[in-house]
Write a structure and sequence with these properties.
three-stranded mixed β-sheet; alpha+beta; 32% helix; three-stranded antiparallel β-sheet; 6 helices
Amino acid sequence: MKSVPISSIMSKNVVCVSPDQKIIDVKHIYEKKKFHHHIPVTENGELKGMISLIDFMYNIAGAGLSDNLTVYSELKVKDIMTPNPFYLNVTATVEDAAKQLEKGYFHAVPILEDNKVVGIVSTADIIKYFLNSNL
């Protein structure tokens, strides 16, 4: 079970942002229902960074919900992203992902193929996999 390819459980419709986008776009992504994990930052499909909800919240501390606030139009994604994030290749297994997520440094891992983001796997994906695998 643990040797199952990560591609079989990863989310393939990955929401990404570019380094030069304004963080208002990040706010709108996090406001969507059922969006909980990190957002990959890409340029031409290649991974440049990650934004977590914590990164976002830390950088807008006290800003409020109005889209018209200055912080949302002044800061860009590259100002708040974590550069050079950890990732796994599409050849990784569920076990590889579980071992990395278990360390607790992050809650989602982008999945790359030929240096392009093709998926993302979160701790919730790993939990669902093991709950549904009839171990």
